Every structure is written in structure tokens, then in C-alpha cells.
Amino acid sequence: MFEMHQGNPGRSLTCEPFQRVDKRALARRFGAAAASYDAHAQFQQEVGQALLAKLPAGHWGEGLDLGCGTGFFLPALQQRCSRLWGLDLSPGMLAQAKLRASGARLLCGDAEALPLADASVDLLFSSLALQWCERPQLGFSELKRVLRPGGQIIFSTLLSGSLWQLAQAWLVVDDKPHVNRFLDEAQLREALENAGFQSPDIEVRPWSLGYGQLLELLRDLKGIGASQVNEGAEGGLGGRTRLARLAEAYEAFRRPDNLLEASYSVALVRLG
Questions:
Q1: What are the structural domain ranges in the chain?
Q2: HSE value, Cβ hemisphere, 13 Å, CA-based, for 203
Q3: What's the CATH number for 9-160+181-207+265-271?
Q4: If exposure means fewest CB atoms within 10 Å of the residue's CB, which of 61, 69, 106, 199 is most exposed?
Q5: Which residues share a beta bridge with 64?
Q6: Where is the Methyltransferase type domain (predicted)?
Q7: Residue 194 CA from chain centroid, whole number
Q8: For the segment 167-177, what is each residue's pLDDT rounded down to a tens digit?
């Protein structure tokens, strides 16, 4: 069983914030989306499955799904671990995960101050959660702290260039940021190395989704709670006129198959 650990808030002073994140607001937003999340999470499920495929053969003792959300991957991970924990920032997400936890223990906590003892985790899995860190290097240092010698970490995160079509279409409407900032590959590698992970194994994959109408993409983003969190965020779309202008601008990204393209850049990372 894990030994609980209170974290060390003072450690946050060791690196500058990459972005400002209101964690309480983020937890509320994901909690509000918990019931609808899986219906809008095709992309998240695809990425998580790709991450699971990178998991080496073997069985682990203490496992952790960091940012477990609705618990979609808990059953698969439970087959590979003697004991499994699911941790999420959002109590609402954990309430949803409880419906499929199947014996996994659920814990509310922040990736940048994990409530776990040093060297207490044998396998740490995290899919599309760490991009919400205010200080990525601090989050990676926490992963390093809780990993046991010989343990394994696999995680996925979004990189810069994700949703670039949406960001470009918004520029036709106004000059405010409407898409989150993400690390680029070099920044990700630097943050990992500064956290103590030498020569991290990083695979970058492009992902492309197609939508009949822009509103379908916006509904997916709202349905998973992934609205814009960086400083300067604009609340809402701002009315029908702005939405119509945005939709018109996004038509520039309609593909030959007549679907609107939404692109992501995903890093699949193995550490250990």
C-alpha cells in the first residue's frame, strides 16, 4: 500500500511556470464534463491505447494511473499490476471512475504535488494529463520522486502545434488566445532532463481527426472539459456572429474527403 505524502509546496520555486493554471477551476471544469467525457473522448482513447501498446511485457506491484479521469484505462492497467491506484485532480472525474474502478483505489491529487511517498510506485501510467501542469519540470520531478528503482513510467502529452487550425481560425475573429499553450519537443526533453531523466525515450506522433462541422469539434472539446486554461483566456464563443466568423475561417481546413481537419502533436514517452 502507498504511504501518503503531503508534498513540498516549496519545491514549486525551483522552476518558472510555463503557464498559469487555476487548478480549482480546472478540476471543476473536468468534473462538470465527467458524465459526458467518454462520449467525446475518441482521440483521448486512441492515444491511451497507443500508450498502452508501448508498455513492456511484465507485471508490476504498485501501479498508478495519474490523471485517470473517468477510469477508462483502469481495467487494462489492473491486469498488469498487483495493486492499482487512480489519481485525478477532479473529484467529479473520480466519482465517474468509481463506476468502473474494479478494485482500484482512487485518490484526489495534483501531479505537481503527488500525495505519495518517495519510491512507492513500480508502474506509472499517465495519458494526456501532464499538459495541464503549471510547471512541467516540477511535475516530472514528482514522477521521479515516487518511482521505485527499476520502475517504469509511460506517459503521453500534447505538444505545440496541437489544434493549430483552430488557433489560426480564431485569429480571423480576434487577437486573443483561444488554444492552450503546449511545450515543444525540445522543451519537453529539457524539462525531463532537468528533472533527472537522462536520455528520455520520446516518440512524437501526429494525430488527425475529421469533423463534418466545426461545432462538432467545439462540442468534443467542451464535452471533455478541455477548454482554454492559459492566461488571457476568453470565456465562451461570444455569440452567433463570432461563431459564424470562426466557422467560416475554419473552412480553409476542409480536406478532400470533405471533413474539417483537427490536428494534434502527441508525445509518447517512456522513462525508467
A1: 9-160+181-207+265-271
A2: 13
A3: 3.40.50.150
A4: 199
A5: 85, 124
A6: 64-155
A7: 21
A8: 999 999 998 88
